[in-house]
Write a structure and sequence with these properties.
There is one protein chain. The chain is mainly alpha-helical. It has eight helices and two strands, in the order E-E-H-H-H-H-H-H-H-H. The chain has a two-stranded antiparallel sheet.
Length: 230
């Protein structure tokens, strides 16, 4: 079976698995872009409703694309799904690439539309840096753990609340610790925020490392608590 893509002059027939991968990657890119763009623009413009905006856009994007790609929009979630054995390595690598690229593009667009003079760069150090690592680890874990349980568990097939649960996890985390770490909980958001001028490049590695650890831990915990869910 094959799908047809038109390049303007001639029809190009793609093998079915390539066409399916293109659909999934496109959905991940769109979702990651709008998530990062929303977070970056809200943060750069100092909106008091940034947590609500972040949780809401994630929720609607999960509902919009979850049936196609799984609605990860987050390299840490993809890592958790990989460890949980819900996605293959090749698909995971493709997801990571499009999620991070979309995050960078979203950061650039956000920086272009918000007055640079209003930007305040988050640059934690000392105790603040340690606190940032802790809260990013905890809430990234919570987000990945929730995604695995509401969107991939065989005990909850076809539930209608998965998007709400995922969005509200980010909403709760952003309200709770946004003033400490900026509430990224997502390597694509972290990279996009640094590109947009919200996060300092010198401390970006802390976000990326602890978010990856959280995704790995969530996948392992899910497997330990659900040994029969393959």
């Amino acid at each position: 079976m094959a799908d047809v893509v038109t390049n303007g002059r001639e029809a190009v027939t793609l093998p079915h698995h390539w066409a399916l991968a293109l659909r999934k990657d496109s959905v991940e890119a769109i979702g990651a872009f709008f998530l990062v763009f929303t977070v970056a623009v809200s943060g750069l413009s100092h909106s008091a409703f940034t947590p609500l905006a972040a949780g809401s856009v994630l929720m609607v994007m999960v509902y919009a694309g979850g049936h196609i790609s799984g609605g990860h929009y987050n390299p840490a979630v993809t890592l958790a799904a990989l460890v949980r054995r819900r996605i293959g390595l090749a698909d995971a690598v493709q997801y990571w690439i499009v999620q991070l690229v979309a995050g960078v593009i979203a950061g650039l667009v956000a920086r272009a539309v918000v007055d640079p003079a209003r930007t305040v760069r988050l640059r934690p150090s000392g105790h603040e840096l340690g606190a940032t690592a802790v809260v990013e680890l905890l809430f990234t874990f919570a987000l990945c753990y929730v995604v695995l349980n509401v969107a991939t568990s065989k005990d909850q097939p076809g539930n209608s609340f998965f998007g709400l649960a995922i969005g509200f996890t980010v909403l709760a985390g952003a309200f709770a610790v946004g003033g400490i770490s900026g509430a990224a909980f997502n390597p694509a958001v972290s990279l996009g925020a640094a590109t947009g001028g919200l996060f300092a490049w010198s401390t970006l590695w802390v976000y990326l490392v602890v978010q990856a650890i959280a995704g790995l831990a969530a996948g392992l915990v899910f497997r330990a608590l659900n040994p029969a869910d393959k």
